[in-house]
Amino acid sequence: MHQGFISVLVTAERYRVVGKSVPKIDGGLKVVGAARYVDDVELPNMLYAKILRSRYPHARILRINTEKAWRVPGVRAVVTGYDVQLGRMGILQDHPPLKTGKVRSVRDEVAAVAAETVEAAEEAVEAIEVEYEPLEGVFDPEEAMKPDAPLVHEENRSNIVDLKMRFSTSDSTHLNQVFEKAAAVVSDRYQVHYNNASPLGTMGVVAHYNNLGELTMYTNTQAPFLYRHELGKILGISPSKIRVIQPEIGGAFGRGMDVYPLDPIAAALSMKTRRPVKLVFTREEELQYAPPRQPAIIYMRTAADREGRLLAREARVILDAGAYVSWGPFDGRVMMATTTGLYTVPEVLFEATVVYTNNPYTGTQRGAGNPQITFAIEQQMDALAEELGMDPVEFRIINANKPNTVTPQGLKITTCELRECLRRAAEEIGWRGRGMAGPNRGIGFAAFFHVGGGARVYRSDGCGTVLSVDDFGLVTVITGSTDLGTGSDTAIAQIVAEELGISLEKVRVVNDDASIRPWDVGTHASRATFVAGNSALLAAKKAREILAKAAAEELQTPPENLVFENNTVYDVTNPAKKIEFDKLVRRIHFRQGGSNIVVSVYYDPPTEMQDENWMGNLSAAYVFGAQAALVEVDPETKWVKVLKIVSVHDSGRILNPAAAEGQVHGGVAMGLSYTLYEELVLEQGRVVNAALTDYLLPTALETPVIKTVFVEKPDPAGPFGAKGLGETGCIPTPAAIANAVYDATGKRVKKLPIKPESL
Amino acid sequence: MKSLSYIDVFTPRSLEEALELLDKHRGELAVLAGGTDLIIQLRKAQQKAPNLLNIYMLDELRYIKHDNEIIKIGALTDFATITESPIIQRHAPVLAEAAATIGSVQILNKASIGGNIVNASPAADSLPALYVLNATLTLRSKTGTRKVAIEQFYKGYKKLDLQSGELLTEVSFPAMKQNQIGMFFKHGLRQGDAISVVNGAILLEVLNGYVKDARIALGAVAPTVVRATESEKTLIGQRLSEDVILKAAQACLTSISPIDDVRGSAAYRKEMCVNYLYMTLWQMMRMVNL
Ligand SMILES: Cc1cc2nc3c(=O)[nH]c(=O)nc-3n(C[C@H](O)[C@H](O)[C@H](O)COP(=O)(O)OP(=O)(O)OC[C@H]3O[C@@H](n4cnc5c(N)ncnc54)[C@H](O)[C@@H]3O)c2cc1C
């Protein structure tokens, strides 16, 4: 295996663009502040919108009076759910953009105003009079499951959402027997909290409806094609009348997966006024109203035999959806895949119960349930190893999945370097065993598992590419895929440059207008480099065929002798026989019966939609890895200082090491701050620390030394052997830190965040 | 966020003019220094914002002087300047230490010591140091000048002995003596740019190994900064030992009355207060007994 690994790297030496640390192609404009984000979109005659939210977490709306709002100078439109007809949103169609009859959370939209200035809009919103009849609310998902709990959606007759996510290898009697006979069992309750994705760019949209009945949306969505489709349904207009434009995206981390009330509201205001309407959240609004990470209560038990082999695992998870179902509860699917797939466990049961409450509705966020469930799984691995008197790294290696394994849910694991990742993590952190890190110090480990080759959560998991080559040899790649700021456009450019033997500057990636781009399901599940990269690679190969045929004629040599390199095409048997890349393009174009070079492909990975029993090979490749954390806990203040994180990744071949390392650093910082600092504190469903004064984002001082290691085993299905990487940096961090805190203090932390106060 | 575009801003060119304006518009103007507290408060406030007297241009209020064993700091002096000042580092290192922990670089450059004092947050980081230094505040109005001891200045939560028409112009205190040592501590919820959950300053005067005088001020544990008088009494007349400093640290509980909030519970604040006092006194004990 090691032999293979080394020889593959030798082949990699041949690559000229792939595998090299190149600056992001969108970096320059961002560094000089010239990149345009949604908030930078300024159109002539633009209006500014503000939303009026509910005063209560749960109440009946008795009366809305907008008269005074209309009287504020500069107001051009006031809308409520009573005077515009909007369809419902969400997978369960449970969410009206503007509420009528009843409000179910403090973020519920009751009315909205468009005015000549933001300030006038704000003044008008405050002038709207709403009479409520407050209702008793429910804020604890376990309380909400009780039969006598106040109902969030009365028509359902229960707060338990009809979204059962259950998988088991056998019936519970058999499972109980396995647990009874096992040599070691750990069983616990874990709880993970709300946090905000906190991208630099807050949620926002500019909607512009014109007199021809065309609606243009400037948005920072992650899934422009699904967005267009959904928005059409909500507004009751044909999606073909909607043009979706994505300016640069200032980070999204999963928050941009859905259509949210602000989108149809801005559209409705623009449809009323026929003027462009901008609605961009302030930071306070972002913290209060953007969908937070899915919190969870996790009851988990795991059993092992005396030799340290896992026998069974059971996880029962309660997911508080909030007042409506957006993407958050679907984190349950990822939790399920990791419960069944991170290690070889013969018997597993996973069950997630989704519950409505009067809390904020949740979204998905980097890792999509994986950091949450890994927090429980990897602490149980640590505790089990201890109970068995085994080394925690050794114990994980014994149970780690191996290449070419099929998990109980039918996930087909192909490349998998988990064991090597665990070894490297232990080596790099200087692991010598439990309690050996020094006074008040501790080391903890956690492994991870995630999809890395797309994820079929929709009818198609595909991405289209249109590639054209102009007369100067400039290659324009129009991709369906959206770059959230992670560098996926750069990876696409590298792939195309490599395949066509041209320099990176000769490739341009275009993806701002979804009415021109071919379809893509959206950027989620760490899929952009794998799926859009494969799509771009196919397109480049197709273009290369056309070019090779012409070059073969031109150079009088068989096409298989041709090498594309350094912006030229030459004959490998006689390098003097060559033609410049751009010249070749012109030869094809400017002649009798000539043509220009435009190719189109659609790549849909060989993945399967899971069936009603949650069986099916969700992704075309899976990624693995491990982290080790070294912490110091101050005995007087219980202050947890993370001194070092080692993050080891099997993401196949790394296309751009510098960018990849950046993704890991960002992921670790995010995971660390989710573990120790960031928490949306809720009282009666309202965020009480919705400002950066008390919502603690990490600063440079909080970010420790991060050592990134890539175990590069090219994946046969990935473009140049690459698998996904975007999310994984943050997945194992909470568990690794919690295990390190245990090593340092002997205290198991079962609830996030780990605050000095809770130690 | 409110628009503040409707308010009028007066920008005087001299202190005299500023006092003139304050007098003319008695009770109608809010003083704007660095604005790092005020602007945030105005944008969040429910009521209409008052007009502003912008004193930020008054360079005559920016100075640090050593004058006859008295250190004088102009009210507009920013915390970056205070931290880096050789005079402060030498004659009031406890204040230099406290000033360095205020916010981030941007805040250090903009935030004034006068603003920190008048804003009167119980968690303000310069206040415990100024308390143990026995600082005096100079308040000027068109009609005269008044000096108030810092402890007398605070009458309750954000209640001040400051009349309309008065401007804080200077804060002064005796330079620390050779046999005095001072230390500041701050516990926030993160390392960078944190608001204090508890903070405090200790100043000890030591003669022949015995504590001759002790001053301890604690922040974020009561409506105003408080002196830990019981702790001080425990130390005075004693040689510093593990036993004495532990007793002194625990004695602070009689002086403090913290509250529960997002940043920490009252119980946690009490525990941290005792622990930090102990840790800081322990370091000072090492310095004294060296
Ligand atoms: C991100 C951030 C981090 C911060 N971190 C800290 C921290 O770590 N520690 C800390 O203690 N504070 C912190 N602060 C608070 C603030 O920066 C300080 O309190 C600062 O010293 C205020 O000074 P200023 O010049 O900005 O005052 P301003 O905001 O201009 O004024 C504050 C108040 O004082 C009044 N005032 C100002 N000068 C005078 C005067 N000469 N006479 C009469 N009245 C006057 C004003 O009318 C106003 O009521 C932070 C603030 C921010 C935004």
Description:
Chain B: Keywords: FAD, Flavoprotein, Oxidoreductase. Chain B: It comes from Caldiarchaeum subterraneum. Chain B: GO terms for molecular function: FAD binding; oxidoreductase activity. Chain B: Pfam families: CO_deh_flav_C, FAD_binding_5. The complex is a heterodimer of chains A (759) and B (290). Chain A is of the alpha+beta class. Helix content of chain A is 27%, strand content 24%. Chain A has three domains: 39-135 and 197-289, Aldehyde oxidase/xanthine dehydrogenase, a/b hammerhead (Aldehyde Oxidoreductase, domain 3, Alpha-Beta Complex); 296-456 and 610-758, 2-Layer Sandwich (Aldehyde Oxidoreductase, domain 4); 462-603, Aldehyde oxidase/xanthine dehydrogenase, molybdopterin binding domain (Aldehyde Oxidoreductase, domain 4, 2-Layer Sandwich). In chain A, helix 12 runs antiparallel to helix 13 (418-429), helix 15 (528-555) crosses helix 16 and helix 17 (657-676) crosses helix 18. Chain A starts with a helix and ends in a 14-residue tail after the last helix. The model of chain A is unreliable at 1-12 (pLDDT under 50). Chain B is of the alpha+beta class. Chain B has three domains: 9-54, Uridine Diphospho-n-acetylenolpyruvylglucosamine Reductase, domain 2 (2-Layer Sandwich), CATH 3.30.43; 59-174, 2-Layer Sandwich (Uridine Diphospho-n-acetylenolpyruvylglucosamine Reductase, domain 3), CATH 3.30.465.10; 180-289, CO dehydrogenase flavoprotein, C-terminal domain (Enolase-like, domain 1). Chain B has twelve helices and 14 strands. Chain B has helices at residues 15-24, 38-44, 79-84, 86-91, 93-100, 105-110, 113-119, 127-132, 150-153, 229-235, 242-251, 266-288; strands at residues 9-10, 29-32, 51-54, 64-67, 70-74, 136-141, 144-149, 154-156, 159-160, 167-174, 180-187, 198-207, 210-219, 226-227. Chains A and B meet through helix 4 of A and helix 12 of B. The structure holds flavin-adenine dinucleotide (FAD).
